[in-house]
Amino acid sequence: MRQISEKQYAQFTSKERLNLTMAALSRGDHAEADRLWQTCPRHRYIAHDFEYTLSVNAVITLGMIFFEKCVWHYNLIKKAEMFIMHAEEDQEFEHREGHKELANQSRRLVELATKAENAHISKLKGLYEGFKQFCIAQGIDNGIMLKSVPVNDCCHDIDFLLASNIEANTQYAGQIKKFFSEHWHF
Known about the structure:
The protein is mainly α. Helix content is 77%, strand content 0%. 17% of the residues are buried.
C-alpha cells in the first residue's frame, strides 16, 4: 500500500477516517488503525452534566419500554375480550338451535379465553407494580413518570382494567422491577 503523509492524515474527513480504519482492521493492520486514531483531530466540547443527561435518556428509554409492554398486554386483553364476546354469541346461538355439544365447546372456549384475559390483566397490574417498585428504589416519582408515558392515549380503559379485582402477578412484578433496575445502572 502507498505511504500516506502526515499532512494527509490530518485532512481526512470523519467518514474517510472511519472507512480507512475499518479497512485497516479488516486486513488486520492494527498499526494503521491506531495511527488513524492517534492522528484524529481533537476537540473540546462544553456539554450538560453527563450523569444528568444519561439519567434523562435512561428514563426516556425505560418509559418507552414500559409503554411497549403495557400496550402489548392491553392489546392481548382486548383480543381476548373480543374473542369471548363472539364465542358467547356463538354459544347462545348454538344453545338456541339445540346444538348442545357445540354450545359446551363454546362455553369451554369462553372459560379458557377468560383465564387468558385474566392472566394478562394480572400481568398488566404486575407491570405497573414492578415499575412502581423500580421507581421507588431509584428515587423517581412514579406518578410523574407514568404521566410522561402516553399509555392512556391509546389504551383508553386501562384505568378500569387496573382497578379490577384481579390480583397483580407478583412474580411478574418482581421480574419487571429487576429488568428495569438492571437497565438503569449505566
